[in-house]
Automatic annotation (TrEMBL):
It comes from the Bacteria. GO terms for biological process: regulation of DNA-templated transcription. Pfam families: cNMP_binding, HTH_Crp_2. SMART domains: cNMP, HTH_CRP. Residues 145-219 form the HTH crp-type domain. This is Crp/Fnr family transcriptional regulator. GO terms for molecular function: DNA binding. InterPro entries: cNMP-bd_dom, cNMP-bd_dom_sf, HTH_CRP, RmlC-like_jellyroll, WH-like_DNA-bd_sf, WH_DNA-bd_sf. It comes from Candidatus Devosia phytovorans. SUPFAM superfamilies: cAMP-binding domain-like, Winged helix' DNA-binding domain. Keywords: DNA-binding, Transcription, Transcription regulation. Transmembrane segments: none annotated.
Length: 238
């Protein structure tokens, strides 16, 4: 079984083989995207929804002043563009951080899940609440946490999600995010992002060198960031 393919299930204490089969109903024709390509533009009519098979994507919103705020980094196994299902136009811009393969999902696939697979529908609801908690945490980071701790917390989230996709990942992995991307994700300028990374490196917590991110002291980085533990959730009630 591909671990990345079902990485989203890793946040649950347990799941059944039938859950994986139901999840496979959320599929569609595949599309290959090159690094830098846009899949949706914010405000675009009839936006598509995707399932990310391989590669990294980013979602972002542009402010009236023209600044970009990255709202989500997507890894393999993620459903992408879901917020736009509630709107007539795309809620966000989706772009490829690396070469990617996605399924373009027909909305009828979700209708099938909601009508015939209520347990899977319940898991989709749980994932939506998981995203809500993540955005609450991100809002708090951007609004109330100093820049260096903000960067540490964001990078820890990425480490956690990368390891869900591939438990064999060690302390180092390729991080396809520029300092501009990191700044746009954490609400700081490139200069402040560079400074935050330098401080994390000088304190021996983590470093980003030539596109490779390395955690040197996971416990220290976690303690410095003050990130809350993320316990797995029960699905017994679904």
């Amino acid at each position: 079984m591909s671990i990345a393919k079902y990485a989203r299930f890793a946040s649950f204490q347990s799941y059944e083989a039938a859950d994986l089969r139901s999840f496979e109903l959320i599929s569609g024709p595949q599309r290959v995207c090159a690094k830098g390509q846009f899949l949706n533009h914010e405000g675009q009519s009839t936006p598509d929804v995707y399932r990310l098979r391989s590669g990294w994507l980013s979602c972002s919103i542009t402010t009236p002043e023209g600044d970009r705020q990255i709202t989500k980094i997507h890894l393999p196994g993620d459903l992408v563009g879901m917020p736009s299902m509630a709107r007539e136009v795309a809620a966000e811009t989706i772009s490829a951080l690396t070469d990617c393969v996605v399924d373009v999902l027909p909305l009828e696939a979700f209708s099938e899940i909601f009508r015939k697979h209520p347990r899977m529908a319940g898991m989709l609801f749980m994932w939506s609440q998981e995203e809500r908690v993540r955005l609450m945490h991100q809002l708090t980071l951007v609004g109330r946490v100093p820049s260096v701790k903000r960067m540490a917390a964001f990078l820890l989230t990425i480490v956690h999600r990368v390891r869900l996709s591939d438990p064999e990942i060690g302390d180092s992995f390729v991080l396809p995010l520029t300092q501009q991307d990191l700044g746009d994700a954490t609400g700081m300028s490139v200069v402040h992002a560079n400074r935050a990374l330098r401080i994390l490196r000088e304190r021996g917590y983590a470093s980003l060198q030539k596109g490779v991110f390395t955690v040197h002291d996971h416990a220290g980085l976690t303690g410095f960031a003050g990130s809350p533990a993320d316990a797995k959730r029960s699905t017994v009630w679904i």
